[in-house]
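Question (not urgent): is this output format expected?
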Amino acid sequence: MLVTRDCYIEAREAVARYSSSVDVTVDPKDVLLCSGCSGALDLCITALANPGQNILVPRPGFSIYRTLAEGLGIKVKSYNLKPERGWMVDLDHLEEQCDEDTAAIIINNPSNPCGSVFNREHLFDILEIARRNFLPIIADEIYEHMVFPGKEFHSLGSLSLEVPVLSCSGLTKRFLIPGWRMGWIIIHDRNGVFDQEVRKGLQRLSQRIIGSNTLVQGALPAILKNTPQEFYYNTLCILQNNALVAFEMLKNIEGLRPVMPEGAMYIMVGINMEHFPEFSSELHFLEQMVTEESVFCLPGQCFDYPGYMRLVLSVPEEQLREACHRIANYCARHFTINSISSYLVQRKHSQP
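Got this back:
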């Protein structure tokens, strides 16, 4: 296949069509192709923030935000998500983190690692905080189409009338093709806030390297247009079914607190460490679980959220069930009633 500049233009046009909806029409001139979604995030952070400034990132959140920012001398401040409210943003805490050195807010929806999907009203609340504080948003929306039936995804760029939004996405997750290195940035800027500097900066930064995979650029229009809807539907059904299986099995295990996801491909599970006193942290807990049961889960520390672990839901159901059985056996062996409860039980049994 001969790849020419026409392929690049056609690829941008294809992304624009793919990303347009009844709420927003994307112009190809607002699309930048990048080397994966992580490359798109790198360009956005670099373009919006200077060394010494800070960006706001979710906690728990994908660790690459901190890695990219701190490598550029940009500070990172975290705002909390609320597990008891399905990992919605703690809006008061988000606004408290905004200061004169804040350059941008990163919003990850649907979320890695939480699997949460923000509703329309919650996104408007986030946009209002950004508007009041004159802050642009970097929207990490790589899981935009991976929302379970019954839930609905709303792009921040489609809702924002005033706040400029850089939306980052790509092929990797929905099309299950990690390594193809095809991502993009869509500039949503109804009032031209980015016209003087940011748009030019993004374009120049995108030319520091050769760019996104040129072969995939040539194939991109066909990939986005011709992939059967059945493929997407089957993928979502598998992920939702696995989420339900994991949640139902894990919620009955003493010492664990799973939070049911609404999209993406992960489930976060709280570990009541007071019931596992032999372990110093969830990392220690999970290291021993690998040793005893050969089940590996990422510790919450990877997402700046100790006391939790993240399970991946993209494995075959049989393997997922086996993993959950092994987790149950492991927890049963190590679970201990906490000291207060133990004291009350002993006192009750010692009474005549």
